[in-house]
Write a structure and sequence with these properties.
Layout (H helix, E strand, L loop, with lengths): L5 E6 L19 H12 L6 E6 L11 E4 L3 E3 L7 H10 L26
Parallel strand pairs: 1-2
Antiparallel strand pairs: 1-3, 3-4
């Protein structure tokens, strides 16, 4: 089996309404992961790329959160409308979309560092 070029981990974690950290998939529909899976199918990829359902990625305050490995690119506030651009720009062409990238200084801070900056 061919190696995977990338794994796109899409947080599909659901928490009860009103939880202090919120969650990335409040209606439990996995619509974001499904959008990635559908978009990837449209492209003839030389090496396979998977869009995997993930539990909490611990970037809840910046969610919906997505991380692409092995590139270690973290995206936040991702909507299904962003998916075609992420696939073309980042997955196919290796470019980081800066306005979606969670800055390194925000990762694992439980939202204590505001992003986007006020
Ligand atoms: S609920 Fe999605 S990162 Fe925590």
């Amino acid at each position: 089996m061919a190696r995977f070029a990338s794994h796109i981990f899409v947080c599909c974690n659901v928490r009860e309404p009103g939880h202090s950290r919120g969650c990335c998939d409040p209606d439990g529909s996995e619509s974001l992961r499904n959008a990635f899976a559908a978009e990837l199918k449209k492209h003839q990829l030389e090496l396979p790329v998977r869009a995997n359902r993930a539990g909490c990625l611990d970037q809840c305050e910046y969610g919906p959160a997505v991380v692409i490995y092995p590139q270690q690119i973290w995206y936040g506030r991702v909507t299904p409308a962003d998916v075609p651009r992420i696939v073309v720009e980042t997955v196919l062409n290796g470019r980081v979309i800066e306005e979606l990238q969670i800055p390194d200084q925000c990762l694992n801070t439980k939202g204590k560092v505001p992003w986007p900056a006020p």
